[in-house]
Amino acid sequence: MISTSKKINLLNLSLKELASFFESIGEASYRVDQLLKWVHQNGIEDFSKMSNFSKTLREYLIENCVLKSPKISLEEASNDGTKKWILEVGNDESIEMVLIPEKGRNTLCVSSQVGCVVNCSFCATGKQGFSRNLTLSEIIGQVLIAENSFRSIDNPKEKNITNVVMMGMGEPLLNFDNVVNAMQIMRHHSAYNLSKRKVTLSTSGLIPEINKLSNVTDVSLTISLHAPNDKLRDILVPINKKYPIKDLLKSVKNYVDSFDDKRITTFEYILIDKVNDSLEIANELANLLKNYPCKINLIPFNEFSLSEYSKPSNNRLRAFKEYLVKKGFITTIRSTRGDDIMAACGQLVGEVKDKTKRKERLKRQVKALELNA
Ligand code: SAH
Ligand code: SF4
């Protein structure tokens, strides 16, 4: 018998690679659709149950292939219905994903990396340092696990994942190919059949990758802006030193303009108390985006240990929002979900074998501060 490790994990193959795989064993390309339906729409991962496959094909797949997603190590539910999973990805490392049920929709927040190199000053994932990119099976496996959570033997599936946001751990554009291939499966009619508006990629702003994105996908793009000028953004989102705001806005405009569906750009803006939440800064933001068709999504800073920042008062939040609304911007405040189980934006940490040694340095700095206090 062939050992599991030698077997091909079919969840690691892109749509194109799946087609080549079936071709290489003398099977027609429609097998891709059939396989996607079994796995993603019916939750069947046992090849012997794939009844529209010939006996020979079933036997070949059992001998040579597996369908392997990350292993669930913990599932937690928040008081507000948000669910968080901790998933093992080998080498004693883990990632987190979050499901946010709302009226009429179920949004899954998916991770793309174990940690993150970008190291934004307000983000718990960034503070964990970085270990590696997730594989395709580890990304699409998250969607499969969440979708399977709606299935049970007694109850036919009533709910579905309706939206996916690439807003979990990591910078998705730094894991370009695996993220794009996973989003293609999310979009595929025989898998999750999500429209371009229902799959959102959130980025801290990597210009070269944004520039090549429209060649391979048309999903919604959200930009984590967080500051209206380079001086402040350099501190909050360090990658800004390499890709400053003016160039970033140009590149995002090119992405949006490459489609003729009249879409507008969403800018995420975390509000951090006394850092980027004054009305002067709101005015600067309004001036920066005044000719830019966009929506501004304000996110109250979610607190976590190891961060010196805090969340603004409700009055400051409201004043910032109202200022932008008066200036004519569509502005929303994202409600904080799942913070009682540390599942809110920016609170996802997983277990990261930090290759950047950032975590160690940070712990030393905090200890030194405590000793000096
Ligand atoms: N790396 C990508 C996607 C993951 S971060 C990005 O930066 O866009 C997903 C979202 O969570 C981003 O908008 C990010 O700015 C936000 N976020 C990170 N830390 C946060 C915190 N402590 N409080 C609130 N939002 C946070
Ligand atoms: Fe990375 Fe996004 Fe966190 Fe910045 S906000 S450190 S890019 S995950």
Hetero compounds: S-adenosyl-L-homocysteine, iron/sulfur cluster
Order of helices and strands: EHHHEEEEEEHEHEHEHEHHEHEHEH
> Considering the protein shown, what is the CATH homologous superfamily of the largest domain?
Aldolase class I
Overall structural class, as computed from helix and strand content, comes to alpha/beta
- Report the portion of residues in β strands: 15-25%
Estimate the helix proportion, in percent.
25-40%
CATH class of the largest domain: Alpha Beta
Domain module tally: 2
CATH architecture assignment of the largest domain: Alpha-Beta Barrel
Give the beta-strand count.
Answer: 14
Tell me the overall shape. Answer: globular
How many H/I helices?
A: 12
Low-confidence stretches: none
Q: Could you explain the architecture of this structure?
A:
With 373 residues, the protein is α/β, with parallel strands linked by helices. The chain has helices at residues 15-24, 30-41, 55-64, 124-127, 136-148, 176-187, 207-213, 230-236, 245-257, 279-288, 314-326, 358-372, and strands spanning 8-9, 65-66, 71-77, 83-88, 94-102, 105-109, 113-115, 130-133, 163-166, 199-203, 220-224, 265-271, 294-300, 330-333. It folds into 2 domains: 4-66, DNA polymerase, domain 1 (Orthogonal Bundle), CATH 1.10.150; 71-363, Aldolase class I (TIM Barrel, Alpha-Beta Barrel), CATH 3.20.20.70. The chain has 12 helices and 14 strands. The site of iron/sulfur cluster has 11 residues, from helix 4. S-adenosyl-L-homocysteine binds at residues 122-123, 167, 171, 202-204, 224, 268, 270, 299, 301-302, 345-346.
